[in-house]
Prior knowledge:
Helices cover 47% and strands 14% of the residues. By secondary structure, the protein is of the alpha/beta class.
Amino acid sequence: xxxxxxxxxxxxxxxxxxxxxxxxxxxxxxxxxxxxxxxxxxxxxxxxxxxxxxxxxxxxxxxxxxxxxxxxxxxxxxxxxxxxxxxxxxxxxxxxxxxxxxxxxxxxxxxxxxxxxxxxxxxxxxxxxxxxxxxxxxxxxxxxxxxxxxxxxxxxxxxxxxxxxxxxxxxxxxxxxxxxxxxxxxxxxxxxxxxxxxxxxxxxxxxxxxxxxxxxxxxxxxxxxxxxxxxxxxxxxxxxxxxxxxxxxxxxxxxxxxxxxxxxxxxxxxxxxxxxxxxxxxxxxxxxxxxxxxxxxxxxxxxxxxxxxxxxxxxxxxxxxxxxxxxxxxxxxxxxxxxxxxxxxxxxxxxxxxxxxxxxxxxxxxxxxxxxxxxxxxxxxxxxxxxxxxxxxxxxxxxxxxxxxxxxxxxxxxxxxxxx
Length: 420
Ligand code: LMR
């Protein structure tokens, strides 16, 4: 008789986002539109291989020394070093003073996972505060490690804007030394970022309370088209916070380089300034040894191919310039689609105010559509978006925008009429 040792396990529901992708792929309707997973599409609704990536790949393959050998445990040094400069700016004090430890990870998710393991090793009772709402995967990443998560208010549903009052109150009320996760830019799912003045207030409040900050940086350059502009919160945060406590940064190259499946990411720790450079060096060595243990036990060493492409882009001036222009191409097209969608809904006289679509930035719009409306959109109009009402604006183009706008108009009008 066989014994099912896994009998006690319960079946879990499918991942909401990837199940949406599956339903979209299986849909046979010609007019289907995918506004689900956050991945850039060009004006023909197709995935886009960035010209900087195509050029970098060519250069890599033409290199006579190209091979598929293992990387070191901490990953490709030319990638992690250049990635830190992209994040912090090449004039960063933390870099000049050699206070940054960087290790390659499996994209941004891997960086968050590494952060979770590190926090757990140092402070098993730490509570990680994430915004409400946040990227759905934040909870399982921390919780499966045994770390407790709480939320801080972020989105005011009634005004479709940032809930600064609630956010600041939670920073003040939470136990000193809590971990606060901030989305560096292009907040996922709301697309609503604090203004610079609001960031300054948030960071000051975090510094005053002695909290530790983890910046989740998945969209640098993707929100505004400018790497420096999109790094404002992070750089200001590092300048204010890293004198007292380490600042953690998770960096993904999935979106801004358009290499979703290659899983290129970096986890950085900016260490506080110590009394002597020798103490800093010793703390860095300890931290590196811990991070290497985490990586070695989980994937031995990170994947090389995508890392080589991104490294080539960041270390070849012409390719870096091409990359910057590619990010402008993506962010400009998305902004254009935001304006077109808002204008079409206004022209159709769709009930409600739609200005938030153009006030938000990055890949997503938190449309304000209810779960029931989203279900109807999928069922009756083949327009797919996340049940929270999050729409990936990158999925809209000039060929499908009329269908998207009239589908939203029809659904919203029906629900409004039923309430009369
Ligand atoms: C998204 O939020 O759609 C992306 O970040 C994809 C993912 O892995 O969830």
